[in-house]
Amino acid sequence: MERSESAGMNPNTGSEQANFGGSVEPESGGITGRVKSVASTVKDKASSLPAIIADGLESGAKALRQNRTAGESASSGSVAIVNDSSIAAVTDTLASGMQSSADWLREADIEKLKSGVEKQVKEHPARSILIALGAGYLIGKAFRR
Fold this sequence. Notes:
mainly alpha; extended
């Protein structure tokens, strides 16, 4: 069995290059320009994220407090569980925690927070991976519902 000389040869060798759908010109800002544009958009949206989260936490805390006071004023038998003092204490603690988290997010220095997280990841990589996996699992469970 003789083998052909052209068998296994790449037809695009030499000075020819395959073009997959468009020209790539780094000087004209093609793909590089688009990546920079997307990166700046993501950075802008990420900078407003703490305020959005803080607003959500505040509205959640306000809703918990309103539901607790509405439950206390109701006298029907179906709301009897809300009148339990331990549930009221837990609700108040949760609302206070949400409010303090919102305040902290508004006052936090993002660059300082970022450097602190980076330091923790460098010093404790295994723990950081486990925390990230746990947080991802919980977020996934929350969004599935």
